Amino acid sequence: MRLQTFAEALGRRRSAVAGIVLFCIPLAMAIFAGWITPFSPNAMVGAPYEKPGTTHILGTDDIGKDLFSQLVYGSRTSLTVGVLSTVIAMILGVLVGMLAGYSGGWLDEVLMRFTDVVLTFPYLIFVIVLIAYVGPSIWNMIICIGVLAWTTIARMVRSQVLSLKTQLYVEAATALGATNRYIMLRYILPSLTVLLIPVAVLTIVDGILTEAGLSFLGLGDLTQPSWGLILFYAAARGGFVKGSWWWIVPPGLMIAITSLGLLFTGQALDEILNPRKQRF
Amino acid sequence: MPGSPIDRFLKDPALTEQERQLLLRDFGLDQPLQVQFVLYVLNTFHGNLGISFRYYPSSVMSVIVSRIPWTLYLLGVSYSLSILIGVLLGAVAGWRRGSKVDMSTLALCFITRSLPVFWFGMVLLLIFSFYLGMFPSSGAETPGVTMDLTEHIYDVARHSVLPMATIVFILLGPPALLTRNLVADVSDEQYIYVAKSKGLPPRIVLFKHALRNVMLPISSYTAVLLGYIVAGALFTETVFTWPGVGRLTYEAVLTRDYPLIQGILLLTAVSVLLANFLVDILYSYFDPRVRHQ
Question: How many CB pairs lie under 8 A apart between chains A and B?
Fold first, then answer.
């Protein structure tokens, strides 16, 4: 599909436009954080428990850090963890799925049973325990989320490879003497990408939500501002006792805006790239 | 923050050297790792999950069992409610595609998918507990008050409104969306036209003809939801300090109570598997074709 027709197809969908606009909010925050807010998110710049005002738009927390700055810089953590964990999950998922689907036989059997085992464990509990063992940091979060989120991708890739494998053009390539590796890289992988792009967008949403959850539990990186971390401190240090809605409501709204933006975009991408897929 | 179980004991300044060695021996932590592992597996098969570090000298099993009723109550009610409401909402939405009900159901699905559970719980807490004072903010019952049975039931019910509302709201989306799409698909089938042209009221056609055929995939999907609810329980119980297994998991992780973490992981995996198995059996009850194969 040419880029221009693709862009036009996106522009015709109201949900896609809304999604992209929503997603641009955290993206702009992440890129232009230093321009948007004058305060450093980790510096004590005001009195403790300040209410929203002209200097501190969303007030300050219990030790006088600017909450709006934390919100703005927090977008960096969320987006980084979401995107990078998705990269890991995609690489693992595609690798396992393609190997299983293309080779078949005992390798397929072993890989898919292993996938089943990982799927059986409730994903989030597994991530939490894993993080508790390796220790909280941004990179550990990225790796832990990534190495546990690949299972559904692997399953999908495998079933897709199974059906692509029987296509005539693959058969033709085999007849011409193409090696397995060549067929996988040149024929199967490109056909998979259209299917995988929307899935990747949805996996980012899961990554962002998981990061927020981990940080809320105090298992995230305590040195980096993050939306989940703001909520962790709000719950632990008297956000409720003082009824500070400005401390509790904005981080969740940011998470919701980011996820909604990605969900809408992913849905639209899926409809454009895979028009014939049956949707449930 | 992370650390081996041995560090946990060695670094406690309140212990004398002798007590330290004694504790290490009692927990079997002086053995090499492979011996510890074999012991763990053997004990597990005997139903012995070890002794909790934090609740010493209680056994892991007794600690977990004491929390199970609260979690079963919270999850049981909210799980059934969310499936019931989700399916009804989805059925009406799919039956009248493009209507206002349909659009709001879709919006609801998207919104619940994009919100963190714990944040939704916190906002409910802020509004209904802090600002309006309608419901208590934490726990499952008022401590230190003697109550007769009806008062006690009322007290627990008041405490469970907000946590249940949180789980129901967050879990509502997937079953609603699935039902909507399935009902929308089915509503073009011939037998639906026949039922309609027989002059049956639309409500009967929807609930007795369309929804009935759709119940099969939905019932197998309820097993998938079980995976979600485990995470939902952990966050909801943490936000509302509910004395269940979810909060216990969180506490165990924070206090590095390794035997307890292992025990909870094992029991969670086993119960999710069991529940899946139950759903499979139920499926064959709903669909006789599966039984005959």
Answer: 113
Question: In Å, how far is A268's CA from the nearest CA of chain B?
Answer: 13
| Domain limits for position A250 | 75-277
A278 to chain B, any CB pair closer than 8 A? The answer is no
- The per-residue pLDDT of chain A, averaged, comes to 87
pLDDT tens digits along B56-88: 778 888 888 888 899 999 999 999 999 999 999
Q: What CATH number is given to the structural domain containing A116?
A: 1.10.3720.10
ipTM of the complex: 0.88
Domain tally, chain A: 1
Distance between A23 CA and the closest CA of chain B, angstroms: 13
In a domain, A139, yes or no: yes
B122 touches chain A (CB under 8 A): yes
Residue A196 lies in a domain: yes
Please tell me the distance from the alpha carbon of residue A66 to that of residue A73, in angstroms, as a whole number.
11
Greatest CA separation for chain A: 75
Secondary structure element (H or E) that encloses residue A206, with its range: helix A189-216
Which pair of tokens denotes residue B200?
Answer: 């049956």
Kindly list the residues from chain B whose CB atom is less than 8 angstroms away from the CB atom of residue A120: 269, 272-273
Look at residue B6 in the predicted model and tell me its pLDDT.
Answer: 62
Q: Do the domain assignments include residue A8?
A: no
Q: Work out the burial of residue A256: count CB atoms within 10 Å of its CB; fewer than 13 is exposed, 13-18 middle, 19 or more buried.
A: buried
The whole-model pTM stands at 0.87
Reported as a single tens digit per residue, the pLDDT across A94-132 is: 999 999 988 878 999 999 988 888 877 778 888 888 888
Cα B19 from Cα B14, distance rounded (Å): 10
Q: What pLDDT band is residue B256 in, cutting at 50, 70 and 90?
A: confident
Structural domain contains residue A272: yes
pLDDT reported for residue B11: 65
Contacting residues of A for B273, CB less than 8 Å apart: 120
Residue B118: strand, helix, or coil: helix
B contact test, residue of A14, A22, A125 with most B CBs within 10 A? A125
Distance CA B231, CA B237 (A): 10
